[in-house]
Amino acid sequence: MVEEGESGGLRALSEVLLSYGERHFDGTPGQKGARRGVWAGVLLMCGQFERAVAALWEHPETEVEAVHLAIALAYHGLLRVPSRAETNDTTPLSLPTNGPPALALSTLIWRYVRQFVKMDAKEAIQYVSTICLSADQGSGVGKEQVESAWDLVRRIIVLANPGAAWEELVGGFRPDGTKFSGFIEQCAPLLKLSDLKDYNNQILIRSAQSSEENSRTAEAIKLFNLAGDYNTVISCLARALGNSITLPNTDENARNIEKTAGEILRHYERMNRATGKERDAVVKLLKVREAMEAKDAGQAELCLEIMESIDLIPMDGDVSKITRRGEEFRDLPEALQRNLQTFLTLTMDALAGVHQKIKGSFVADANKQITLAALKKKSRSLMIFAGILKYRMSPDVYSYLARLDVEIAL
């Protein structure tokens, strides 16, 4: 067989055939006698594999054939892929002036699978894994192909629909706390992921970061948890709860985050994982949600009891202690600091609700006065604490607290 570069060989033949062009072989699209695929077959015959795939890809009715032909060529080591610098965003085919044609397999695969990635993420992963068939190409191109495949896997994880199918894709935890691997981890050899550490770092953690950036917080938390990055899980939970604490009970995403936070906390308590300020913040924020629900249900006493148990606001009347706690507030996790106004108004509302109930009750006057005096002391303590941190809240909130404090004092 003659070599590609020999005089009168494949290169010379391809130059002659290319001069005729697609219309000479396939005819004019839409006209009688027009064919489809003959031109691609001609290009294949003369060794122009990359051009053959591109010729099929240009027509919607032969896109599927283009993708599978490219995969077959890559499998047999017959497909040239360009370097990242030479890849063209507009077309998969690269025609460098100083080299042979090349075809961006990753671009072709992504444009194909993005049509069904949400409906069938597993199928998309299988196609993406074929990009790694070109991992042995030289000059660093093979490594770039593997990195492109990893990038597309991460993109699929972020785009895939949440639910049971998503967990089958990435893995998860059974009710008894044992871990099960997902489809992507099972495909690790095909994706050139050498070990679990590689899988965690390249796929799970980076997908978690992208998920959080795309407001898919629940999925980000699960991914960090699967990767064993427990401290980041807790930090992510704290941020998410801090952002969603004031959302209404009807907000499904906020409730899902609270449910996930509760499940993970219980699991971490059993395994003694991720202790520290951020975990304490998650516990406190979940308790605040309980207090808010109690308030909405008209249970002011329970709301106040929960807020006192959290111990975010000192209410024992000790001015020196209140001052110290006000100064220490800046050292708390940001998720708690950001919600100061929520904590203060919730607690003051609970105090006002209990105060109103006690004043209208038929309790013995002596007992009533003792209870009212205790409520007044707590209200005053809250106002001293709020005064120390006055610069952290809006004037309207501070005025609201002051008005309720006056009502409780009467």
From TrEMBL:
It holds the Pfam family Nic96. GO terms for biological process: poly(A)+ mRNA export from nucleus; protein import into nucleus. The keyword Transmembrane does not apply. Signal peptide: none annotated. One of its GO terms (cellular component) is nuclear pore. Keywords: Membrane, mRNA transport, Nuclear pore complex, Nucleus, Protein transport, Translocation, Transport. It is found in: Nucleus envelope; Nucleus, Nuclear pore complex. Belongs to the nucleoporin interacting component (NIC) family. This is Nuclear pore protein.
